[in-house]
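Deliverable D4.2, example record:
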Amino acid sequence: MKKSILLLLAVGLLLLNGCTGIKGLLIYDKNPTLPTIQKVRALPTMSSVGFEWAKIEDKRVHGINIYRGSSSDKFGTDQGFKRIGTVGNRYGTHFVDTHVKPDRTYLYTFTTFYMGEESNHGTILKVKTRPTFAGVSFVQAYKVALGVAKILWRPHPSERVNAYIIERSVNGGAWKYIAQVEGQLMVEYIDSFIHAGGTYAYRVIAKSYDGIRSKPSQVTRISF
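Output generated by the structure prediction step:
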């Protein structure tokens, strides 16, 4: 009996959690009498965009929906926009989109909602995230033994960097990931997977704690 009760409670919790997760998938009926949000202040960084708007005074409003589109979407319409978040209280005036990439242009628009009804889309806001940080300023490859190369680089000055990605190109081919070195001050990598008669090119990409990658460093080459 005790096990049956626990099972029913577990199923109930799953159903409740499922309902919460499905909230973002609700289909709203349009209600043009609901207020629209026309003035939104945006503050972009490399990996996020923060938004602020005035408090909604209309007491019918239960919350605000946030929609995002890419720069390839038709500017000036709400076609192609997807709902990315909800502020479930009309007193809320802030939202942060953390699913963006550096140096990209995004389009945003906001609506208000009430009891399964949604306002028209407000003004479409065009936002460009900030460019990624500068790359490693110096990198050099050295032949240290037969079939072994040592790659050295200068530590990145930014304290937000905590790793380096090493990429390699063989005989002018495509760049491929070969390793990640941890630590801002760890500045060497030994490549022992080298065959005679080839030209090996290397470049280093700094990586921050929040996963942002810098621009690639200069390219260094060495022949065996």
